[in-house]
């Protein structure tokens, strides 16, 4: 009986939700029907689908706003008219873009992010419930709707599988239709049914915003400590990068972005928690967020100055700026509780989508200007046409290839009047510019084969080392040997471009060191057996001796790629040693 009562209550709640959000539910049903038609006919409704998703969110936010502030049908009509206008503007913005293209998916993601923030922020206007309480309500509703929908979906899939296997074959379409109906109509409707009516001083809102014990433990004793350790690792790496002036790898970008998102999320979710961990996190995290975000801003800006702007770099710069400003806002007691970070997030979303300052327009202008500058510097534009020039600097070749590739990705090549009308990167690039868009490989490989013996007379120990070095990073094995009760170590010293193989005693004093640079230069000039990478053993063997020890280095195999500071190599070597 209790289960039946719960089911009846939930169905009643869903019925109320349909009456409460009629336009949204109608849009979701239309979206589901269009997807089913697409399965039947194979016709793509890409732009229509994303527009309906945008519209459903916009009208949901408008309904929440109307419930909070509208008191007559005229005032209720205004937010609905605003949602309709936003939907029209959004459709006009994407109507010429290919379905599910990079531009369309990126803009849609940004728009959905902005609408979700608006959904949580609008009820907090004019003394309503706080933005952080509304954010918790949305988070709980998403979590619960996903949880129940996943269970229902799994159950239905099992039933369909059993019918298909045991009774009658039903094909694949019932699975597809079930997924569409459940995830397009049921799950969003269930989510909306969990959203309370946002009215001032509503007990229902307080109950809906209450943090469950499970969430409190998860946030306070799992997420916050993990974020703290994560922050420590990032700070150590940042200090290392600054001290070494190594800004080129940009390994931190995905880590810092995920960290900034996590900090802002955890801050918003923990706003109502009063335990020691949560209070300390809210006090320190915003202050630590500022230097981390600014560091990534500076790192990405250096890349942009070197390679030009792309939409991903634009969004990274904008988000880092948003995170840094949010850190400042959350560090000021009089501002942190007013939801200004939500306003700032919506402003950033609008900036990132609105031409001519949006991510794609800015990136297109930047890459086009950079491309034209390089072409003109190399005198490759004559009579408004590109002239091939195979002898230009390799760096300029890479810049041209990178800009052309990016402009093709965002469907902007047709704007370049100096390119042939039927230009295709895959087939016409080399004939148009005079060189291949793909970097020439300078990879080389050498080995001694498996049918050669190595002379070991005159030596007492044999060590085998694995060495890998790429730029400023290296990885290598260590071999130890014992003589007259003293332990010695054969290892690789990574200092310098190629490093050296050395023998050290128990006090880490170097007995002998053999730099690899002259060995590698000799190997690169060695003659290979025709049709293979095999080199004679004597061409891969090197000896060195002093008054303390002697050693012989035999390369079993050796690979090298790159030049100058970008050189990377891997080697497997035998080291024969004898101590004096």
TrEMBL record:
Pfam families: DUF4153 (PF13687)
InterPro entries: DUF4153 (IPR025291)
Superkingdom to which the source organism belongs: Bacteria
Keywords assigned by UniProt, alphabetized: Membrane, Transmembrane, Transmembrane helix
Membrane-traversing stretches: 48-65, 77-94, 106-125, 146-168, 180-198, 218-239, 251-267, 288-305, 311-332, 339-357
Protein name in the entry: DUF4153 domain-containing protein
Species in which this protein is naturally found: Sporolactobacillus nakayamae
């Amino acid at each position: 009986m209790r289960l039946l009562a719960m089911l009846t209550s939930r169905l009643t709640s869903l019925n109320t939700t349909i009456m409460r959000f009629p336009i949204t539910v109608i849009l979701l049903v239309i979206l589901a029907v269009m997807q089913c038609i697409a399965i039947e006919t194979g016709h793509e409704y890409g732009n229509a689908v994303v527009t309906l998703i945008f519209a459903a969110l916009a009208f949901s936010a408008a309904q929440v706003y109307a419930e909070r502030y509208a008191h007559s049908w005229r005032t209720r009509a205004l937010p609905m008219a605003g949602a309709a206008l936003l939907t029209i503007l959004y459709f006009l913005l994407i109507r010429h873009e290919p379905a599910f293209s990079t531009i369309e998916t990126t803009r849609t993601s940004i728009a959905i992010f902005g609408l979700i923030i608006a959904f949580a922020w609008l009820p907090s206007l004019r003394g309503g419930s706080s933005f952080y309480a509304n954010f918790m309500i949305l988070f709980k509703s998403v979590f619960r709707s996903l949880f129940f929908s996943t269970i229902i979906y799994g159950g239905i899939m099992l039933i369909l599988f059993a019918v298909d296997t045991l009774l009658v074959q039903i094909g694949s379409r019932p699975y597809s239709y079930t997924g569409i109906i459940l995830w397009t109509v049921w799950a969003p409707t269930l989510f909306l049914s969990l959203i309370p009516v946002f009215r001032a001083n509503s007990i229902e809102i307080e109950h809906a915003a209450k943090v469950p014990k499970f969430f409190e433990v998860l946030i306070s004793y799992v997420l916050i400590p993990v974020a703290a350790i994560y922050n420590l690792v990032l700070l150590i790496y940042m200090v290392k990068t600054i001290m070494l002036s190594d800004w080129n790898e940009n390994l931190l970008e995905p880590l810092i972005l995920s960290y900034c998102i996590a900090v802002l999320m955890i801050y918003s979710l923990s706003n109502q928690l009063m335990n020691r961990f949560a209070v300390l996190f809210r006090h320190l995290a915003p202050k630590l967020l500022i230097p981390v975000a600014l560091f990534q801003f500076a790192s990405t800006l250096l890349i942009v100055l070197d390679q030009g702007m792309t939409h991903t770099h634009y969004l990274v710069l904008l988000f880092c700026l948003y995170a840094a400003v949010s850190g400042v806002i959350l560090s000021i007691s009089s501002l942190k509780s007013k939801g200004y970070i939500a306003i700032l997030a919506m402003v950033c979303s609008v900036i990132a989508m609105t031409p001519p300052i949006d991510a794609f327009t800015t990136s297109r202008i930047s890459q086009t200007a950079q491309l034209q500058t390089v072409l003109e510097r190399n005198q490759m534009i004559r009579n408004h046409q590109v002239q091939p020039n195979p002898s230009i600097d390799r760096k300029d070749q890479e810049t041209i290839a990178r800009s052309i590739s990016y402009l093709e990705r965002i469907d902007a090549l047709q704007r370049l009047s100096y390119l042939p009308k039927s230009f295709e990167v895959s087939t016409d690039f080399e004939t148009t510019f005079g060189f291949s868009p793909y970097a020439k490989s300078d990879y080389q490989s050498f080995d001694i084969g498996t049918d050669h013996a190595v002379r070991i007379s005159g030596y007492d120990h044999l060590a085998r080392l694995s060495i890998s070095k790429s730029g400023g990073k290296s990885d290598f094995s260590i071999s130890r040997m014992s003589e007259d009760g003293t332990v010695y170590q054969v290892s690789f010293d990574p200092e310098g471009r190629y490093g050296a193989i050395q023998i050290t005693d128990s006090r880490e004093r170097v007995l002998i060191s053999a730099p690899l640079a002259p060995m590698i230069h000799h190997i690169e000039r060695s003659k290979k057996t025709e049709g293979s990478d095999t080199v004679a053993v004597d061409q891969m063997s090197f000896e060195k001796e002093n008054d303390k020890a002697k050693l012989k280095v035999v390369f079993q195999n050796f690979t090298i790629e790159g030049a100058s500071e970008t050189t990377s190599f891997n080697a497997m070597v035998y080291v024969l040693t004898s101590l004096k």
